[in-house]
Specification:
Blueprint (H helix, E strand, L loop, with lengths): L7 H29 L8 H18 L13 E5 L3 H13 L3 E5 L10 H4 L9 E4 L8 E4 L1 H12 L7 H31 L5 H21 L12 H10 L13 H11 L2 H7 L14 H8 L5
Parallel strand pairs: 1-2
Antiparallel strand pairs: 1-3, 3-4
Helix pairs in contact: 3-5, 3-8, 3-10, 6-7, 6-8, 7-9
Length: 302
């Protein structure tokens, strides 16, 4: 049988390759015996070094860092006059325990039209605040009572929930007050107490609307203690208006759940302090003075 010819050079290379493989296997066995001869539980120097570095890193990561020093809140400037809108903010500041400077804005004399006040409240309405410790540690001014309540709620984390579902409920009732209870009750106050002539249609219109709004609140409060389930800026926004039910021509006995809510809120010490904040000049205002009435009720664009 014919055999396949193989060159001499090919045989030599194959043999050399075989001897090299055998040598590598022998060396591996030798290393295996060497490592198996190391006592159990003993780590190599490399492993020990790695473990030591790991402990040092862990120690550094768990070491307590000194607490950062926080500067006390500087007083917030509160531009205020003792009305239901102004009291929203005095109540909130008292409830949050924030220090504040009371800066009266005598709306019967036209303080609200002064350039320095318009710089922070362009709608020439109080309340307004200036917080020297605003976002980023920089001063910030805020006008409109609802916006101020939301700002202070976010700043302190009080009476304005972070949970979105709960916050939506608070915002609903806050906006309800801003767009409904406040304006309608204010008109009832005006036509029942301040109008130069008694206009029966206007008196009936706004008295009835207040009655409707009180009914909404009463129904809402039939199964809960507060408008948005827990005490919040929505309640703070409403109490100044609802507590003046007599001036709006209402009988609180018709709204027992609302009546209990008013009693519940008025029992809060901080709320009571905010409601009772007074300005001496306010008690001296003569609402029958033609000049006072002109400033308050006869303004046009400037």
């Amino acid at each position: 049988m014919a055999r396949k010819a193989v060159k001499a050079g090919s045989r030599k290379k194959t043999a050399t390759k075989g001897r090299g493989v055998a040598a590598k296997r022998a060396l591996a066995k030798s290393k295996g015996r060497s490592s198996s001869s190391q006592p159990k539980g003993t780590k190599s120097k490399a492993a020990q070094s790695k473990a030591s570095k790991s402990k040092v890193a862990k120690s550094k990561s768990t070491a307590r860092k000194p607490a950062a020093r926080t500067r006390p809140q500087r007083p917030i400037d509160l531009y205020f006059w003792p009305t239901p809108n102004g009291q929203k903010i005095s109540i909130m500041l008292e409830e949050c325990g924030l220090p504040y400077n009371l800066i009266p804005v005598n709306i019967s004399k036209g303080d609200q039209f002064k350039p320095e006040f318009l710089a922070i409240s362009p709608n020439n309405r109080m309340p307004a605040i200036v917080d020297p410790d605003g976002p980023g540690g920089r001063s910030i001014s805020v006008f409109e009572s609802g916006a101020i309540l939301q700002y202070l709620g976010r700043k302190t984390g009080k009476f304005y929930p972070r949970d979105e579902r709960a916050r939506v409920a608070v915002d609903e009732w806050l906006m309800w007050q801003m767009g409904g209870l406040g304006p309608m009750a204010g008109q009832a106050h005006h036509f029942r107490s301040y109008a130069p002539e008694k206009i029966e249609y206007a008196i009936k219109r706004y008295t009835n609307e207040c009655h409707r709004l009180y009914g909404v609140m009463n129904k809402r409060l039939a199964e809960r203690d507060y408008l948005a389930d827990t005490y919040s800026i929505a309640d703070i926004a409403c109490i100044g208006w609802a507590s003046r039910w007599e001036r709006q021509g209402q009988d609180i006995a018709e709204f027992p759940h609302l009546g209990r809510w008013i009693e519940r809120l008025m029992a809060r010490p901080a709320l009571e302090r905010g409601m009772k904040l007074r300005v001496e000049e306010a008690g001296q205002t003569n609402m029958l003075d033609p000049e006072v009435r002109k400033v308050l009720f006869d303004q046009r664009a400037r």
